[in-house]
Specification:
This protein is an alpha+beta fold. It is 14% helix and 16% strand. Bound molecules: iron/sulfur cluster. Residues 3, 18-19, 21, 23-24, 48, 53-56, 63-65 line the site of iron/sulfur cluster.
């Protein structure tokens, strides 16, 4: 699954620098997928792009953003359950298209 930032977020953006996939963006900031720029997914607080989050699979043993959050706003998204194989495939896609 990807992880998600909940409304507990105070938009400090401490997590953004931790992400090896460039999956984290500030409130209202458009995100990049490959060569495409896409509309922000959240206007209220920092957000994670599910298509770019691999739970850090391919880089680290654990999600790096979760411990960086001072308000514990980052959680595993129960609506986006993915296997390790699926997460690795996502990472390999990002390797090709860019982050
Ligand atoms: Fe990025 Fe890893 Fe957090 Fe996913 S779990 S948003 S890949 S730092």
């Amino acid at each position: 699954m990807s992880v998600v930032i909940t409304d507990e977020c105070i938009s400090c953006n401490a997590c953004e620098a931790e992400c090896p996939n460039n999956a984290i963006y500030g409130a209202g900031v458009s995100y990049i997928y490959g060569t495409e720029e896409k509309a922000a997914l959240n206007e209220e607080h920092t957000y994670i792009v599910p298509d770019k989050c691999t739970e850090c699979v391919g880089f680290h043993d654990e999600p790096q953003c979760i411990p960086s959050c001072p308000t514990e706003a980052i959680i595993a998204d129960p609506e986006r359950v993915e296997t390790k194989e699926q997460l690795m495939a996502k990472k390999e896609t990002l390797d090709k298209v860019g982050r």
